[in-house]
Amino acid sequence: MANSNDxxxxxxxxxxxxxxxxxxxxxxxxxxxxxxxxxxxxHGFTKPADEDIIEGKYYPSHEAIDFYHxxxxxxxxxGEMGFNCFRTSIxxxxxxxxxxxxxxxxxxxxxxxxxxxxxxxxxxxxxVTISHYETPLHLFKKYGGWRNRKxxxxxxxxxxxxxxxxxDKVKYWMTFNEINNMHTIPxxxxxxxxxxxxxxxxxxxxxxxxxxxxxxxAVKLCHQIIPDAKIGxxxxxxxxxxNTCHPDDVFGAxxxxxxxLFYSDVHLRGYYPSYIKRIWExxxxxxxxxQGDEEIIRLYPADYLGFSYYRSTTYKAGMPILxxxxxxxxxxxxxxxxxxxxxxxxxxxxxxxxxxxxxxYQKPLFIVENGLGADDKVEExxxxxxxxxxDYLNSHLREVREAIKDGVDIIGYTWWGxxxxxxxxxxxxxxxxxxxxxxxxxxxxxTLKRAKKKSFYWYKKIIETNGEIL
Length: 470
Ligand code: BGP
Known about the structure:
Layout: E1 14-18, H1 21-24, H2 60-63, H3 67-81, E2 85-89, H4 92-95, H5 106-121, E3 125-131, H6 137-143, H7 150-165, E4 172-176, H8 186-190, H9 201-225, E5 230-236, E6 239-242, H10 247-269, H11 275-282, H12 293-299, E7 305-308, E8 312-315, H13 347-361, E9 365-369, H14 387-405, E10 410-416, E11 436-438, E12 450-452, H15 454-464
Parallel strand pairs: 1-2, 1-10, 2-3, 3-4, 4-5, 5-7, 6-8, 7-9, 9-10
Antiparallel strand pairs: 11-12
Bound molecules: 6-O-phosphono-beta-D-galactopyranose (BGP).
6-O-phosphono-beta-D-galactopyranose binds at residues 20, 23, 177-178, 236, 308, 369, 373, 416, 423-426, 431.
């Protein structure tokens, strides 16, 4: 920003939206795509998934919002809002249907060529998540997911294939979506298959190690194949506060936060932090590392930190920190309002997290998920007056602007779900994030017709003025 009362964001700031293949594309088994772990999920990733697809059962990801066939219409709508970037994931099993295939699936590669061409046609830089809760189901069933070191080889083959194929089109990459969710939703984040009665932290940290090595190998390959690209790590980093000023709550919140920051510490600093040793000892975790692993992690740290921010939660001494699944359940913060899904709305928390992360890493940040899920109402005349979403957008972007003024280097902002898509946590359609409404309900009924909400026109103005209107 030129001077302190300049309200515009920096020149070249990336404005856009973010989705994930499994929550939008549908066409779950079309053109050679193999099933991935999202295709056996019925009620979101916080509940157990089926081992196999059960004939006749409804799986939200099978059709999702049919982005696979409708992406040209949707990208045109994003272009109308003025996006200069757009984040989505490549579905690993479109490229390698089983994950361990020797050769890629050309029809899958061609789809993403066409998709990136469409984005570039509208001036949108593709921002690609390499693995967004979409591990090929076969890798879960045959290998037990990321707890098996073989996945490093399969992931590296996948990365080399897509880097070579899309090197002239994609200059922003990130490896694993919300890798710190290995502790809360290990099936989604690491496709981990657990054994009866085992200490679950053992496979969680062993799988995490394999993913750290794989991510560093991806950084090495990306820099070799696409020298002008940036490849980041990606974490879920909504804010965590102590429930009271009691020292036990304060230190407990600090420890809880560090369970997530452990993942960005390794990805961005390039070594295992000293505090992890005590955690592993106390929880009887013995991570096996092969010769050269720590060297790879040290030599190839991520270029930037991508993260999702939705809310803040509070921590009270005694609440579980590790080894639980199903998301971090905080206590009610009396100073904040909640969404219909109980997520506490905290714009200032975003400024706090941007400062916290930039102070810790001094590497560029990319806010690749921020948004409000709400059960929008369609009026008689077809309009959708989502002022609550406009308020959420304005209040969070104003705090992003404050963070930039605080000296934080922020690459860009992609609103999560610029079009209504399937919720990851609950698999619902009615938890709508979009500036664009999609006619589909939780049971899969609807025409899939798209409609612009009031927020569509507002985000367009924000981008047009590079934030000055905020
Ligand atoms: C994050 C995921 C996204 C998205 C988001 C919103 O954890 O990276 O995939 O789903 O959460 O959560 P939900 O869809 O459950 O509302």
